[in-house]
């Protein structure tokens, strides 16, 4: 129903990227109802880390799905 990132970079270039891409990735994940999300151009590392982190949270919640990040 919702996704909230616990921690994202807040300063510098990494913070700018995170502020831009976090809502996009959250929307992708909610639409997919999984961690199987597309990479956001210009934020590859952030996208992959987000998907892996989300999958870890789903695993801890007992919701099984494989991470496949499309590019």
How many separate helices? Answer: 2
Structural class: mainly alpha
| Poorly predicted spans | none
Topology as a string of helices (H) and strands (E): HH
What can be said about the biggest beta sheet?
none
In percent, how much strand structure appears in the residues?
Answer: under 5%
What is the CA-atom radius of gyration, in angstroms? 12 Å
| Termini gap | 25 Å
Approximate shape: globular
Which whole number gives the mean pLDDT?
88
Number of strands: 0
Q: Summarize the amount of helix as a percent range.
A: 40-55%
Please provide a written account of the structure:
With 71 residues, the chain is mainly α. It is built from 2 helices and no strands. Helix 1 packs across helix 2 (44-60).
Sum this structure up briefly.
With 71 residues, this protein is mainly α.
